[in-house]
Amino acid sequence: MSSCRVAQVASAGGALEIVEREVPRPAPCHVRIAVEACGVCHSDSVFVNAQVPGVRFPLVAGHEIAGRIDELGAGTDDVWRVGDRVTVGWFGGSCGHCPPCRHGDFMVCENLKIPGLTYDGGYAEAVIAPVDALARIPDALSATDAGPLACAGVTAYNGLRRSSARPGDLVAVLGIGGLGHLGVQYAAAMGFETVAIARGAAKADLAQRLGAHHYIDSTADTSVADALRSLGGAKAVLATAANSDAITATVDGLAPRGELVVIGVDATPLGINPTQLLMAGRIVRGHPSGTAQDVQDTMAFSALRGIRPMVETVPLDQADEAYRKMMSGAARFRMVLTTR
Question: Is the full-model pTM beyond 0.70?
Answer without folding.
Answer: yes
